[in-house]
Amino acid sequence: MGLMILGILVLIGGFIFAAYVGKQYKGKSFAAIARAVACLVCAIAVAGSCISYVPTGYTGIVTTFGKVHAETLDAGINFHAPWDNVIKMDNREQRIAFQLEAFSKDIQQVSVQGSINYNIDKATAMNLYRDVGVEYATILISPRIQEDVKIIIAKYTAENLIENRQAMSDAIYELLKTELADKGINIISLAVENIDFTDAFESAVEAKQVATQEKQRAKTLQEQQTMETEQKAERDRIAAQAAADVARIEADAEAYALQVHAEAEANANAKINASLTTQLIDYNKILRWDGKLPTFMGGSETIPVLNLGNEE
Length: 312
Hints:
Layout: H1 2-25, H2 28-49, E1 51-54, E2 58-64, E3 67-73, E4 76-79, E5 84-90, E6 94-103, E7 109-120, H3 125-131, H4 136-153, H5 158-163, H6 165-181, E8 185-197, H7 199-275, H8 278-288, E9 296-297, E10 306-307
Antiparallel strand pairs: 1-4, 2-3, 2-5, 6-7, 7-8, 9-10
């Protein structure tokens, strides 16, 4: 549209110049040439104002006297009315870095540094331009980052922020993505690159970690001593059980030996008793008799004891 206005101005200027020259020099041919040149320049300017080039990665937003058209222009050479204006909106992936101060759930000051990658939707780029303009990153994205990061950090204690860094990043990403989607801004990724705390808090955390490590070391030492005591008690129990088993085995062996000996004697006596006869007994008596007659005889109630010895 700027070229068209320029062409009209050149045309008007050319006619004025041609009239002036014709009046001064009374030469109609020179004035005609001046008008022709002015018309040619005007035509070129008007034609140029009907052509717009949109670079790759951009979308052309068409406006007519400030009114935004519902359609957009793709990358390349585009033709339009000479009174239309074309604004180029960048659709490529872009990055915004941020650094801010926030407070955790336990009122600890937190310094957060990170970045987001985003692009704008080609299909709704004209709405974003109409409602916000080309400064949408400053007007929309940066304030939302500031607010959403603070909202999410306030849900975590300072210690939990360290432990749940990825969960915190995901929560910020989802919140930011949801809030900017209806504006035609697509949040591609979000990264929390650094989290810093105050020196006092870091000293407290370090002291707590040292205390925790000492407690864990003492607990480990106690568990080791308890384990060694239990192992010694188990070894003593096993040794006592082994000694008892040995004693029982020895007692069983001794008892078994006595039983075997007794059974052997009983079997021998049984065999001896089975082999005794009256003739054998009498025979053994005769073998053992020393030739002396017995001094006493009898011993039952019916037979009195008689002294067979010599009486003086």
